[in-house]
Design brief:
The chain has 881 residues and is α/β, with parallel strands linked by helices. Among the domains are: 18-122 and 265-327, FAD/NAD(P)-binding domain (3-Layer(bba) Sandwich); 126-263, 3-Layer(bba) Sandwich (FAD/NAD(P)-binding domain), CATH 3.50.50.60; 353-422, no CATH class; 441-496, BFD-like [2Fe-2S]-binding domain (Arc Repressor Mutant, subunit A, Orthogonal Bundle); 512-568, no CATH class; 672-792, 2-Layer Sandwich (Sulfite Reductase Hemoprotein, domain 1), CATH 3.30.413.10. It contains 27 helices and 41 strands.
Amino acid sequence: MTVVSPVRPAVGPNDPGRVVVVGAGMVAHRVVEQMLARGEAAAWEITVLGDEPYLPYDRVHLSEFFDGRDADALAMGPSVWDDARVTLRTGDAVASIDRDAQEILTRAGVRVPYDNLVLATGSWAWTPRTTGIELPGVVSYRTLDDVTALRDWISAREQQLGRPLRGAVVGGGVLGLEAASALQRLGAHATVVEFADRLMSVQLDEGGGETLRVRIADMGVDVRLGTGATRLVAAPDGAVGLLVLSDGSTLDVDVVVFSTGIRPRDRLARESGLAIGERGGVVVGPTCRTSDPLVWAVGEVASYEGVCAGLVAPGNAQADVVVDQLLGGTSEYAPAPEGTKLKGVLHDGVPVEAASFGDVNALTPGALEVTFADPVAKTYKKLVVSDDARTLLGGVFVGDAALYSSLRPMLGRNLGADPSAFLAPEGGAAVPSADLPDDVVVCSCANVTAGTVRGAVTEHGCTSVADVKKCTKAGTVCGSCVPLLTKLVNTQLEASGVEVSHAMCEHFAMTRAELFALVRAEGLRTFTEVVAAHGTGRGCVVCKPVVASILSSLGVGHVLDRANAPLQDTNDHALANMQKDGTYSVIPRIPGGEITPEKLAVIADVAREYGLYTRITGAQRIGMFGARLEQLPQIWKRLVDAGMESGQAYGKSLRAVKSCVGQSWCRFGVQDSVGMGVQLELRYRGLRAPHKFKVGVSGCARECAEARGKDVGVIATERGWNVYVGGNGGFTPRHAELLAEDLDDGMLLRVIDRFLAYYIRSADRLQRTAPWVADYPGGIVELRKVLVDDTLGICADLEASIAEHVEGYEDEWAATLADPARLARFASFVNAPDTPDPDLAYTPERGQVRPARPGEASDPNPVIARTIAVRPSDVELEDAL
């Protein structure tokens, strides 16, 4: 139990009263936050009672617990509990409400009087009546305790069984899919069991559900639709071992997560005699008052017109109404159409996108559906509009939800363009943003309108997105509105006569593109020269790596040369990617994924000798993990001597060129995709850019190399090659757009040369090609004019810059091994260069090693740890003897 109770002044006889909030979740936090923001509440006493032993936390991002965010990191605005008017009592559940005495009794025996009571008890995870649900290894997925129990069970059970676990998630909704992703991140296999005919059946239509199923299956998650859980059977040791489904089939399981819906936590309200809705929940009216005029209900426990809203946005809106009513206002709750966006589901670290809003199934009389589906890219987009195709009624987006944040505010409004134009794969209509009417809700979670955002700039003096977030709370919950919020803020700042700074940092009052042009034109070669000519001060962690990248792009010296080395970030400084435990990865270049048995043997020998964790990467390369800093030169000497070179997995440069086997082996291939992939990789290797970039080459339209998810994608045709640009499979996936088609080999190289050189010259700091293409004035159409039609007359110069790079290329690791001064940098301890870091610890897993987690038995030597992992048991030794 935690009590946060600042010393408060005595309450006088004329003070308005005491507000008690039962429940300490996100909506309860909103009640307190809004009351403290209102000057009229200066003399109120606010007491918050929560049964969980934590500060109110961000349940929307609960899955980030598996990324290392604990209760403290997930806590919402903890500063509100420092206010003298607020008492927070956690870990002590409310036992009863005495409405006659206006008093709360907690299970610890504490009596808390109230003048006004706000019920924000939320909901509980409902599970169907299933035999065996009490077995060890069966958990829910709703609270911090749930996810902690899931993590601990998998860790202990995996160690007990000595193999990866088999997991099942019952429920294919938003939380169920988050749970499946969590199982994968914890090393377990996941199967999703959903009784409906599609995933996210409440939020998606049939086409969207099927597209999402394909994407979830691509993650390696099995999906079982049209069936449910009927019985759980124990393994011989008493833990869960078998899941029996309603279709008669079974699943072998070691862990089962139930995510089958929620029910309002209305027990206290029932027992105190408050009116309860037909389907549960505390009945409230537009003021959010219950049947007792001194009791209010908000969030998932509040039943308004028979509906208990299960999202944060309506709960926050209800909290705002209650606060206003308590302080003498007349606000009333009016439900807004809900929208949902999938979060916390990752495929190889990349979010799986699915979102919807409004009438997703076109049930409105006369509604029209405009759909764009791309089975190759596995994307599905649909807009539902009125019978005259003008008013937006709903939307579904799977695989690419970039339109969600921009179009959702337009729900119920005139689109202003042909609906199909918004869904077109290239070109099309611009999504309304900066010119939104003032009453349009930009952030539904915090109920913030475009007018409020503009007012934050014009009336409250906000001069940045961060200021507006702090002032309005927009963009602080789920974050899906931040792109639209940023455009709105910047446009209003400019309209108000405030110059929106595009400076890189305090030392350079210009963009990266502007600085690149100056450095190139003046032939500057060091950071000292650059800052003396165009900057001030000594630089910072922002501008130094940018200048280092510019100099490298222009071929000015090795990254570890004396003048360049201090500018590099951690990865470039070590010519390797730093991992979570402070060790590094080693990834040699394998052009086209082709590698000889001899080179494979060298990699195997190195990995075995140094105890490195080894895996095939998604870029058709072999990654070795766990090398100490002082081991990197030794390892790379072995690889370089065997004819390999740096894959530059650490740099803002070409990562790899992924290709399918093409016509060499595939019966569908129409061009030599492997040969072209090798040629492109050898051409652009070592090319430094504002950010990393990836290339894909597919030998036919079946697109096995996923080229349209790359910065540069090349797809073979019967007449040559089509080249696509601006694709991205990262945090915000984007489909590459067609730049030129049916090119021969020579012209293909020239067009890619132009694109990359132009991107390097004009992109912003740390900007990938996807947003660069998307933000380019005129989009792909104008880029095509510049890079194919040569309307600016710069193509020859762009091609020449790439030719200069190709001519001057050298492998960074080979050059480092030949320079003693560069090699001297590779030591964990300057005063003991041959001493390994004693804090490194490893534990065996699946025949290899990984960094030890807190509390795990481990060994500081990865080779010994691996030996432990594969050593036979004593019983096996006795049998062998």
